Amino acid sequence: VPLFGRRSRVFCRYRGYVLPSDIVNTVVNDIPWFEVRPDDTWVVSFPKAGTTWLQEIVYLICNDFDYEKAQATTIEDRFPFLEFPYPGVKVVAQSPPPRFIKTHLPFSLLPKQLDEKKPKVIYIARNPKDTAVSLQAFTKMINYVTFLGNMEDFAQLFVEGTVFYGPWEKHVKEAWDRRDEENILFVTYEDLHKDFRGTVQDIARFLEKSMSESQLRALEVHCSFSLMQSNDSVNYSWQQGVLFGEGQFMRKGKVGDWKNHLSSEMSDKFDAMVTSLEPSGLHFVDS
Ligand code: A3P
């Protein structure tokens, strides 16, 4: 029984990763030669790891907490998605510095100049069970992928490494292995949940930006789940009826929601995947 509908985007494997075919063309032909600037700021993640949350934090820290400026433009325009057809890699390349760039590509598929120009790069990871649940909900919501299976079917594809941008553990491990490089910071969704203030202070230090106590307090309120959910510059409401059908991009924003969706057998399969990463020192909290 096919799990993806006929009108779904086609996926293919490129250098060990599963990518939508239109993105593969960009990844092969444009991304390797993309000109990186040392004053760029990059947010890199596996999809549904809390990318948008981190983007908003980074953008505000780097733009003097100018909430009006952030509000005036969608996150998609002020912090574009490198390999996505909109606005397109050529537009991103030509945008004036300082540039803010989001990508879901793993390190091994990023531009060759990244290692030479050494812009600041923050990678965010999320425990795979919540990532899979969030990605399945997202897959149901987006118009260009028709997933016909249920949550358990999707979770099985996730652990097999065949959902887009997978295998998840390969993606995360590549970033984890580079966490000590001076221009790279590795954070987790669970860190932001548990200790928003401490994690944001680490991020600001890494970005070489100072932040007062009142600025931190205001950012914490601004980036709370309920305010981000109703914030039309970050909640992707502009894509409703365009790229998205039914459903909310800012869905639940919780750690441990997987318990409402995954069987204990499936949870064991995810645990085995996480355990395989533990010798590297990488651990995940999932409740
Ligand atoms: P859920 O689907 O579990 O709710 P990404 O931006 O990488 O696509 O990640 C989206 C996930 O991050 C969604 O998870 C979304 O709700 C969650 N998220 C976004 N903003 C958040 C916030 N301020 N607090 C907590 N979770 C947030």
From TrEMBL:
<keyword id="KW-1133">Transmembrane helix</keyword>
<protein>
    <recommendedName>
        <fullName>Sulfotransferase domain-containing protein</fullName>
    </recommendedName>
</protein>
<keyword id="KW-0472">Membrane</keyword>
<comment type="similarity">
    <text>Belongs to the sulfotransferase 1 family.</text>
</comment>
<keyword id="KW-0812">Transmembrane</keyword>
<dbReference type="GO" id="GO:0008146">
    <property type="term" value="F:sulfotransferase activity"/>
</dbReference>
<feature type="domain" description="Sulfotransferase">
    <location>
        <begin position="38"/>
        <end position="273"/>
    </location>
</feature>
<keyword id="KW-0808">Transferase</keyword>
